[in-house]
Amino acid sequence: MKALITGITGFVGSHLADYLIDREHIEVHGVRRPRSRNDFLRYDVYYHEGDVTDLTSMNIIIKQLHPDYIFHLASQSYVPLSWQAPQATLTANAIGTLNVLDATKDNCPEAIIQVAGSSEEYGHVFPSECPITELQPLRPLSPYGVSKVASDFLARQYHESYGLNVIITRAFNHTGPRRGEQFICSKIARQLALIKLDEADPVLTLGNLDAVRDFTDVRDMVKAYWLAANRCTPGIPYNIGSGVGHTINEVVQLLVRISGCQPRIQQNQGLMRPSDVPRLICDSATFRSVTGWEPEIPFEQTLKDLFNYWMMKEK
Length: 315
Prior knowledge:
There is one protein chain. The chain is α/β, with parallel strands linked by helices. It has two domains: 2-174 and 215-240, NAD(P)-binding Rossmann-like Domain (Rossmann fold); 180-213 and 244-280 and 297-314, UDP-galactose 4-epimerase, domain 1, CATH 3.90.25. 42% of the residues lie in helices and 17% in strands. It has ten helices and 13 strands. The strands form four sheets. It has a seven-stranded parallel beta sheet with strand order 3-2-1-4-5-6-11, with helices on both faces. A two-stranded parallel sheet has the order 7-10. The protein has a two-stranded parallel ribbon with strand order 8-13. Strand 5, helix 5 and strand 6 (165-171) form a beta-alpha-beta unit. The longest helix is centred in the first third of the chain and has 22 residues, at 86-107.
């Protein structure tokens, strides 16, 4: 069988490629832009140059490959950037999803397509509404969240209108080795690695430390995506997350203990978002009951692996 991953050179895409390569009888293909980073490329993956924002390239790739599975992971995924570049974010995330769905409809309508949504779609959540189920109203608080709501609704519409086998997942925060340095867990781990290596002053400069997030290891998340593609019902959204909330301050303290450093922690108002989601904790009971998925990697182990990744990368 053939699996096509959009965004294969990114954080989640590269981990999904690792996971699928280890499974029997799956030929892994990936869409990559000519300017994509090459850090995570594997020799045993077939790469196709294209861009989800270019419908012609997606038509060519999907028509020629005729995949059994399409994992649509390509996106502009950094929430703060979406305020600086809202148009680019909406183009990459909403129009990119539209192009993947349209190319699949016209060239390979029997394929199973997983569209990766986000907990940021829920946006403003009151404390009484946690943990968050799929029935929670969508109140996005960023252009990124809006773009993911559009992607989610397009996926549902293409299933209803054209019968496409679209699996809709709403993943809560996930992290681990290879996470970009701008994302909060990676940002903290990298700063601590530089301090440990005597390449930076012993100071952590951070934004909102009170936000509560539900973190899952990326290696558990990609297993969830595979199970979703094989066991979930098309056209229905599924939350995926650990069900455990951690404040950003708790993440800081865990990583400080793992690193053995004693940095000074200072907050920078310039790093605060224009509107932040205060609390996101997942209720993934529906997904777990359908797939049998359970996260296996403890959060502290995830952070240890992330810190060690940055120690190796910065040496």
